[in-house]
From TrEMBL:
This is Uncharacterized protein. InterPro entries: KDZ. It comes from Hydnum rufescens UP504. The lineage of its organism: Eukaryota, Fungi, Dikarya, Basidiomycota, Agaricomycotina.
Length: 146
């Protein structure tokens, strides 16, 4: 596995891909917090499309901490020797943040990051080379991981 900190595509991806996606822009308000207590839902699903966990989004924008909370909840339920492949529309940015800010240090070495196929071709080419599921070990040729 290519370590993120040594990957030239990682630094490039975190800035150029961030500008490409509304979900990566944490400052963009997509729903009014003055009219609604909850502005959305974020769900974590397995490769069978079954909901494993959900959180209410209560702030404007899709903040990374919602994904971090879901991942921490997942890994509390898994045996400590298990690894998991995580596909997220801006997985490159979340991976970069976990390395940069030392988020989830107890589980970060158990995560194989990727970008969901639906979003992969919207990412910059260097990012696709690193995070596209068909270019990552363990993801296979389907849209989900296993």
């Amino acid at each position: 596995m290519l370590a993120f900190s040594k990957c030239a595509a990682g630094a490039l991806c975190s800035t150029s891909c961030e500008r490409s996606f509304l979900a990566a822009n944490e400052n963009r308000e997509k729903a009014s917090t003055s009219a609604f207590a909850d502005t959305g839902l974020m769900a974590m699903i397995c490769h069978h499309d079954r909901v494993l966990s959900m959180v209410n989004i209560t702030s404007a924008g899709e903040k990374q901490y919602y994904a971090v909370v879901l991942l921490e909840a997942l890994f509390r339920e898994l045996p400590t020797w298990w690894r998991a492949g995580i596909l997220y529309d801006v997985g490159c940015n979340l991976h970069h943040s976990t390395v940069k800010w030392n988020l989830m240090p107890q589980i970060s070495d158990r995560i194989e990051w990727g970008i969901s196929v639906f979003h992969a071709f919207s990412h910059q080419w260097p990012c696709q080379c690193v995070y596209h599921p068909q270019k990552r070990d363990g993801f296979g040729l389907c849209k989900e991981f296993f």
